[in-house]
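Standup notes
- DV: blocked on the single-chain target, sequence here:
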Amino acid sequence: MKKTLKKSLSVLLAIVLLSVSTLPVAFAEKEEIPIIYVCGMGSVLKDANGKTIEAADVDKDYIINATKNVVSKIPVDPNGNWDEYCDALYACFAPIYDEIRLDKNGEASDGSHVARTWSKNSIKKKYSNYTAEDYYYAYDWRIDPFEVAKDLGKYIDAVREVTGKSKVTIIGRCLGACIVTAYLVQEENVWEKVQNVIYYAPSVGGIGLLGALFSGRIELDDESIDRYINAYSEKTSLIEDSSLQALVVSVISFARYLKLLGFGTDVIMGIYSKVYENIVPRLALTSYGSFPSFWSMIGTEYYEEARDFVFKGQEEEYSKMIEKTDHFYYDVTAKLPEIIKELNGRGINFAYIAKYNSDIVPVFKGSNVQGDGIVELTTLSGGATSAKMGSCLPEEYIKAAKENGTEKYISADKLVDASTCLFPDTTWFIKNIDHVIMPDCINPLLVNISKGNGSFTVWSSEEFPQYMTYSESDGSVKPVVRENDNLEHTPKDFISSIFRLFTNFFKFLKSLFDKRK
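- DV (later): unblocked, structure below
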């Protein structure tokens, strides 16, 4: 009896000790970690006197007058001298950025600064994980990301001290992802301070549109333009009169088949070829090219070419600026995957939230890829493979995925394959949502990723599968379940274009008639 009781007590004691020993682990899994949101471009800026500054508003009258001035300088002989035209264009463009432009060192020498500042006293000790913004870090989005990252490091340390938490989750949104990555690179033993990094529609790794603009590699394709205008005319009121807008869009589509749209783009590109070397570097350096931060969003395909093009003949004058841009490119962009993999191996969990199925502005070669209207999906997701806009992944590709066991990573609409991402199990995709839209319905996903500390994956929740579609009508996300619905904005065939043109023409006439009643 005693032996039995002794054994029973021993077993009970072992169970108690085992339970107690596992408590820290259990609590660690459920522990809420402070979430620091590093925003993208857009924090309010102030001048030295505390007055809000921004790029100047450009109204209709300004555009009309500027257009008149520029057009009047077009040489009669297309093969003549275009310098006056370039000067007129620069004179119209440069004043827009007078208030926010940085100096030749890439610094705000006029005393301008970010409006939202912080101190340890302003950081609350109590936080809530019901939103994705426990702590919102604002910064001067023009300056060197490494300079911003130094202040971000102090902010993170202050949050850790005030909350009593050893680690934080950092969300890097768009340009904010560049800032976060600069912090990860330069902070010593950063894995002891950061538990999770979430790249939310990130631009770190490069924006093709920006690289093409800075390097002068502008190209116009009539089919891409047609598709882009069709897609965005359904989302945005480009013209106040909706019936007139529909008519204009259908005229553009029809003009493509008559080769008139292509003729127009050829004329534009002919002029561009004569002026871009004169005007592009000047326009860049008087605006966004004066911001080191924007250079951090140029990828490996364009950076060196863009740097040499914009600063050509001015290398000594802009030496400190170039030093800043080179620093980020060679220490971050050029070796981004290696950096992230190493930090992941040291215990930092990474996740991506990407957007897709929005046409990218069609002014450069390769703009017909999947993206969120601004950034390509490859950058947004850390390496996803996707179909071109208006098409699906080839059947041969899908067949190969079935054979190698990666078919589960292919979206139901056959547009995206996540298996090639850096972290395929912690990369989410949201369809039909533009880069600038940040709906509240994504906040619970951000919170779950943070709380999961690497354990919350695309397979963890039916509410947040790997592929979701955004519904603007009710602000929700639902699983992607439909195939081939990516073809809705594909340029219409010739017969469809004629039919739509006449349909919209008569609708427009009817609207004019109705207005006269």
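- Follow-up: The chain has a mean pLDDT of 85.
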